[in-house]
Amino acid sequence: MKPKVLVARRAPAAVVDKLAAHFDVDFHPGESPLSPDELRARLQGKAGAYITGTERITAELLDACPQLKAVCTMSVGYNHIDLAACTARRVLVTNTPDVLTETTADFGFALLMATARRMSEGERLLRDGRWKSWAWDFLAGSDVYNSTLGILGMGRIGQAIARRGRFGFGMKVIYHNRSRLPAETEAELGARYLAKDELLRQADHLVLVLPYSAESHHCIAAAELALMKPTATLINVARGGIVDEDALAAALCEHRIAAAGLDVFEGEPRVNPALLTLPNVVLTPHIASATMPTRIAMATLAADNLIAALTGAPPPTPLNPEILTA
Ligand code: DGY
After folding, report:
1. Same domain flag for 111 and 215
2. Of 143, 180, 196, 212, which one has the greatest count of Cβ atoms within 10 A?
């Protein structure tokens, strides 16, 4: 008898086939995520859950699904999973780091460029037939080359964005992180560590790449925005809940900062209506890791994790490896 697993979202056919070679797969092929009640019902009797960032794994859900042994998410972020509750119940959790780092950094940088150079605003104006003539200040944005790139959260993706800024665009790189990078990494990236307030004051472009947690919830709110330059841009490719969107909309509306580029939203796919009406914000639907090769690599890594977790092999990227040895 093969172990039973739930594949809670669509995945590449080859990956579903690979899982089906090892498991009795219950596959949810729909475009919308399962509701919490549907997820609980479909997880009954399952040893493994193959999920994405749209499925929440809570302590209550775990208690209702005592046969669950492994939760493997096709995402690097895991704020949708109560990791402590999983560990306490000896449920192995895995994520998909590394395989999306460069793709996500490319997108973060693209969003920075689009925001600073007002590309969405220009395209909307052109498509609406509002392009009348050339003028010296027509859609004039801010420079990227040679400016100061601030990075809040200097993990793998933050460092990859720093490299693009430093070596591609001659930017001065400053950063803040919970823990300071080793001196040799700072030297390699040409990155200078600053206190968070000082980072906010000095950055021309501030990119948020920190993990979402109770600690980082709304860590960019009115007080933080007030420290930023009126010419600054704010880019978020991490999680929506890091930014207080009402405070951001007010700052953008009153031109207390110049512009924002957001790929993630608190309560997505719902977007704060105040943001939708502002011209100086570029909005994209959580697609920073969305290239075909990267999504296939993420899907494959999540499957490899699940196969290893339920066949007694060491999973490639566990989040709570301590339960494997305890
Ligand atoms: C991630 O991997 O965490 C991305 O946000 C996609 O969900």
Report:
1. yes
2. 212
Q: Do 34 and 83 belong together in one domain?
A: yes
- 90 and 49, same structural domain? yes
* Domain count within the chain: 2
**Same domain for 240 and 131:** yes
Do residue 131 and residue 212 come from a single domain? yes
CB atoms within 10 A of CB 1: 4
**Cis peptide before 269, with omega less than 30 degrees from 0?**
yes
Q: Is any ligand 1 atom within 6 A of the Cβ of residue 289?
A: yes
Average pLDDT, the chain: 98
Sheet of 259-262, strand order: 191-193, 172-176, 148-152, 205-208, 233-236, 259-262, 281-283
pLDDT in tens, 209-229: 999 999 999 999 999 999 999
Cβ-count burial 161-173 (b if 16+ within 10 Å, e if not): bbbbbbeebebbb
Q: pTM score, two decimals?
A: 0.97
Residue 310 sits in which domain range? 4-97+292-325
Q: Is the pLDDT score of 325 beyond 90?
A: no
CATH of the domain at 136: 3.40.50.720
CA-angle at 170, arms to 165 and 172, nearest 5°: 70
Structure tokens at 20: 């089906």
92 and 117: one domain?
Answer: no
Active site residues: 239, 268, 286
**C-alpha 215 to ligand 1 mean position (Å):** 19
Point out the ligand 1 atom lying closest to the alpha carbon of residue 264. 5
Average pLDDT over residues 233-253: 98
